[in-house]
Amino acid sequence: GPLKSEVDARGFRRTPFESYHWELGRARQTLEEHFGVQTLEGFGCEGKPLAVRAAGAALAYAKTTQRSTLPQLDNLLTYSTRGYMTLDAATRRNLELTESMRGEAKHCLLGVLDETQTAMGARLLRQWVGQPLLHLDILEARLDAVEAFYKNTVTRLELQAALKGLADLERLTNRTVTGSAQPRNLGALRESLARVPEIQLILAGLLRAGLENPPEPLHPDDLDPCTEIHELLCAAIIDEPPAVQNSSGFIRPAFSEELQQIIEKARHARDWIGGLQELERERTGISSLKVSYNKVFGYYIEVSNANTKLIPKDYERRQTLVNAERYVTTELKEYEALVLNAEERQLDLERRIFAQVQQQVAAASARLLALGRALAHLDVFVSLAEVAVRHRYVRPVLTMDKDIHIQRGRHPVVELTLQDEPFIANDTHLTDDSCIHIITGPNMSGKSTSLRQVALITLMAQIGCFVPADSAEIGLVDRIFTRVGAQDEIARGHSTFMVEMVETANLLSQGTSRSLFVLDEVGRGTSTFDGLAIARAVVEYIHNHPKLQTRTLFATHYHELTVLEALLPRVKNYRVAVAEEGEKVIFLHRIEPGGTDRSYGIYVAQIAGMPRPVINRAREILAELEQERGRAPVAGLADAAPLPQLPLFAEAPPNEIEQRLRRVDVMSLTPIEAINLLFELKTLLSTTEEADNANSGD
C-alpha cells in the first residue's frame, strides 16, 4: 500500500508482524495483562481505540523482540498534538532546528540553546525544541523559571558547576530495572545522588533572594535525594568500581559477613602458605626445601634427591623430577583449596550481592526517575538563562490573540556566525489588518534570514525560551509551515518543482487561522508566467479563504505581486533596503515598507566571480528585455494598471468565465485544483482578450 511504498522509498527496514496484534480486543488484553489492570480508563485510553491498538501492537512487538526492556514500561501516557505546535519534516529542515542543512549540529537552533551540563538536560532540551507548546500557563511557568536564573547570576553559575558531570540518572535507573547495570554504573549513580543536597542548598538561596512561589522544580523540596539508596550504594560498592564484574573486589567486604569471612580465610591461608617454607625447613632440617606453585599441580613442597631420607611420613609424593621430588601434605591441600576456591567463591558471592543491591535500587526507580526529570528541567532552565544573558535575549509576552510584534528581532544562529559585521535587526508586525507581508528585494539581501528569524523567534517563545529581540509579543501559533528552498526527491520521482508544489499544497490544506506561513520564492521552479500565476493565486487564496487569512511572510522576486497591496486589504509590501554607488550595490539588510522592481541578480553574479564578458552581455540583454516589456519603475507601481484579479469568492462579469465559476464547488477544491483552475481561467481570459483585439482590428 501507500505506507509500504513510502517506507521503501525512504530506505527504512521493515519487520513483518502478524496483523492480529492490531485487533482491538487483542491489543486491549495485551495492555491490561502487562500493567495488571482490568480497565485502561486510568491511562486515559478509553474512547481511543486507535491509540489502544497501536500501543498494544507495539507492546506485543517488544515482548517478542526485546523482553529485557519490558520492566521499563511501567506507565502509559496518551499524546495529543492539540497540546503542541505541529512541525512537519520540511519545517524542521528549513528552520534548521536540530541540525544545519549540511548536517552539522553546531550551526542550528539547538546548537545555540544547548548549554546543558547533563545528558538528561540535553535530551529534554532537544525534545522541547521539537515540541513547542500551545498551553499558555505551562509556557509562563517555564519562562518564570528561566527568568529566576536570568536574574540570579550567582545561583546560575553555582548550579552549572553542581550539575556538570552529573551522571544520566534516567538511563542508569533503567539499567537497574532491566538488570543490566554494572558496578561502575552504580558507582556513578552514587556519586550523582551525593550532589543532590548541594543542589538543594543552592536552590534554597533563590528563596533567600526573595523569589516567592518558585515554579517546579526550583523549590528544594522538589528534589528527592533518595538518601537510603545513596547510603546503600556507599555501603555496598567500593570507591572506584570496575566497569564489569569479571573479577572480585567491587563489593566492600564489610557489607557482607559471609564475604568478609571468605576474604579473611583466604588471607589467612595465603599467610600460612607463605610461612610454610621456613616452618618445614626447621621441622625437617632440610635447608634447601622450597614451597612453590604452578598451574598444573598447584602448591607443592620440593626436596632434592640428596635429602629424601629426611622426608617426614606425612609427606605425599605428587611429582618426581630428575634431581628432586615434589610433595604435599594434608594441611597444605586444605589451605590450597581455601586459596584457589576463594576467588571463585568471592566473585560468585559478590555477583549475588550486586544483584540484590541492583534490585533494591530498581525498587526505587520511580523516585530516581522523578529526580532525574527534575534535574533535567533544572539543567534546561539554567541553560536557557545562560544563553539569554550571553546573547542579550528578552522575555517574550505571550497572548492568545493572532498578532505578532517583534522589535529589532535577530536570527539566533546567523547573528553568532557574523564576525566582520554586526547583525542588522528588523521589526515585524503581523496583525489582522496586515497579516500578509510580501517582501521583495535583491538576492543575498537577507530576505530568507528575515523570514526564518520570525519563525524561530515564535518557536523559541513557545518552548519557554527568551528570544533575540528588544521586545516580542507573540500570539500563540498552532503550526509553522515553511516553503523555503527546494530539493528534488529522485527516489519518489519528484522534481524540485513538484516538491515545492507538494509543500505549498500541504500548507494551504492543513493551515489554520492560527498558523504561521513562511514562503520563499514560491513558483520559481517553472516558467516565469506560470510561476507568477501560481504565486499570485497562492497569496489570494490565503487572503480570501475564510478558514485561513493566516499570518504570512511571502518573499518573492515576482515584483508584479506588489500590486496586490492595492487590491487586497490585508496585504502589505515590504522591501530590503539597498544603497547604490555607481555599479556597486550595498545590501543594508534592513526591512522597510514599500516594494521594489530590481533583484540585482547580475551584481550578485559579478561578486560570485562570473567572467566579465558574461556580466557585460547580461546587462545588455537585461536592458533589451526591460525595454521590450516597458517595465515601470518602483515609484510607478501603484499607478500601473493592475493585473486582472480572479477572486475566489466574488462575482465576475457575465461571460464564459462566470459560467465556469458557477459550476465549481469552491469549498471542495484542493489547493492544487484551485491553482489549476485559476490558471485555466487566466488563460481563457487572455484568449478572449486576444480575440476581442483581433475583432477590433478587423
Name some characteristics of this structure.
alpha/beta; MutS, DNA mismatch repair protein, Chain A, domain 3; Nucleotidyltransferase, domain 5; 5 domains
Outline the structure in words.
- With 698 residues, the protein is α/β, with parallel strands linked by helices.
- It has five domains: 2-79, MutS, connector domain (Nucleotidyltransferase, domain 5), CATH 3.30.420.110; 114-226 and 364-391, MutS, DNA mismatch repair protein, Chain A, domain 3, CATH 1.10.1420.10; 261-354, MutS, DNA mismatch repair protein, Chain A, domain 3; 397-597 and 632-643, P-loop containing nucleotide triphosphate hydrolases (Rossmann fold); 646-698.
- It is built from 23 helices and 14 strands.
- It has a six-stranded mixed beta sheet with strand order 10-11-12-8-13-14, with helices on both faces. Strands 1-2-4-3 form a four-stranded antiparallel beta sheet. A four-stranded mixed beta sheet has the order 5-9-6-7.
- The two termini are 59 Å apart.
Structure at a glance:
With 698 residues, the protein is α/β, with parallel strands linked by helices. The protein is 48% helix and 12% strand.
Average pLDDT across residues?
85
Q: What structural category arises from helix and sheet content?
A: alpha/beta
The number of distinct structural domains comes to 5
Q: According to CATH, what is the topology of the largest domain?
A: Rossmann fold
What would CATH call the homologous superfamily of the largest domain?
P-loop containing nucleotide triphosphate hydrolases
- Overall strand count: 14
What is the beta-strand fraction? 5-15%
Q: Tell me roughly what share of residues is in helical segments.
A: 40-55%
Query: Biggest β-sheet, characterized?
Result: 6 strands, mixed
Number of helices: 23
| CA radius of gyration | 38 Å
CATH architecture group name of the largest domain: 3-Layer(aba) Sandwich
Largest sheet, spatial ordering of strands? 10-11-12-8-13-14
Poorly predicted segments: 488-493, 632-653
Shape descriptor reads elongated
CATH class of the largest domain: Alpha Beta
Q: What is the end-to-end distance? A: 59 Å
